[in-house]
Amino acid sequence: MVALRYLRARRERSFISVIAAFSFLGIMLGVATLIVVMSVMNGFRAELLDKIVGINGHIFLQGVETPLTDFDAVDDRVAKVPGVKLVIPMIEGAAGVSSQYNQAGALIRGIRENDLKRLPGIVGHITLGSLDGFDQGGGLAIGQRLAEALSLRIGDTISVLTAKGAQTPFGVAPRIKSYPVAAIFNIGMSEFDSSFVYMPLTEAQSYFGKEGEATVVEVFVDHPDRMDQVRKDIDGVLGRPMIMTDWRQRNKTFFDALQVERNVMFVILTLIVLVAALNIVSGLIMLVKDKGPDIAILRTMGATRGAILRIFLMTGASIGIAGTLAGLILGLLVAHNIESIRSGLNWLLGTNLFPSELYFLSRLPSVVEPGDVLAVTLLTLALSLLATIYPSWRAATLDPVEALRYE
């Protein structure tokens, strides 16, 4: 009762309640900001892992010493390994693509129709056209942003140019060939949607002069975060010399940078909570100074030092607990509705706060991890409680005689 009464100061002592209110707001905003930022960082990692790995595979097998003409046999052996979900042989090559309106660079990927229909990044992302008859139709599947850049629609013709053409007495002649656009896909990652072009495998073998072979076999596994055992099992069934890499090696710098950024953001934003906790310290010290005569009277009436200590601990802790709970609710609400909030701000401000050209993704992702929420909550409660210890100890050790000497 006494602790809560001290928070509701009288009008002439309202500055203490003002400090308490600012401390409450600081802790609430600090907790909410931490939860939202951690959720967005988790969302970035999950989305980028899903997009990058989902379209590119988890393990990459490339032939050495001899061309990879036995890719079907490798496919059969690797597909039987426990934990392997999908095996796709491909032809990959860089090329220039153009229409009558524009031109751009692209990564041509030769793939069989059945494999393309099972490719995680493509399944459910065909926006125009169809993949039916892909192998026999001789058409290409291109990304939506590439189609927009070249002003292409289904049925339009796209020209593919590569410098590695036929050998002539005057050197290597470039090769150019035109294909109809059979399908347009939207993966949701601007870098891929603006550069990937899928071509029937047999056509890609002919175009790049790789008759009867593949340049890479991509393997998709059930658990991308647990790769080591699957790599050992695959290595044991290959039956021929091959170079094996996985998504961690190809994207190590990128995902390490994301993790470092996440950790740094956590430390920086924790300072908001720390500043709010220091406000609790200053507010309680001023409260102890103001309530010195009251403390002395309570002591002379029989209140123990422990009772005085508990009064001020409860006063400070109530600010921290209330601010933490309010921040927790606010943070979860914002984190779960971050994309709607972004869309509303875009409409209100008339600008794009999350351009996909810069951030790779077409939407602002958010994944709330219970472990992160628990860590933020416990950290804030701990800082709030620590902030109350010194002022409460000062109040408990106050000498009643000294406090009442000049009253």
From TrEMBL:
One of its GO terms (cellular component) is plasma membrane protein complex. Residues 22-235 form the MacB-like periplasmic core domain. Pfam families: FtsX, MacB_PCD. InterPro entries: ABC3_permease_C, Lipoprotein-release_system, LolCE_TM, MacB_PCD. The keyword Transmembrane helix applies. It is a multi-pass membrane protein. One of its GO terms (biological process) is lipoprotein transport. The chain crosses the membrane at residues 15-41, 264-288, 309-338, 373-393. The keyword Transmembrane helix applies. It is found in: Cell membrane. Its main location: membrane. Keywords: Cell membrane, Lipoprotein, Membrane, Transmembrane, Transmembrane helix, Transport. Residues 267-400 form the ABC3 transporter permease C-terminal domain. PANTHER family: LIPOPROTEIN-RELEASING SYSTEM TRANSMEMBRANE PROTEIN LOLE. Belongs to the ABC-4 integral membrane protein family. LolC/E subfamily. This is Lipoprotein-releasing ABC transporter permease subunit.
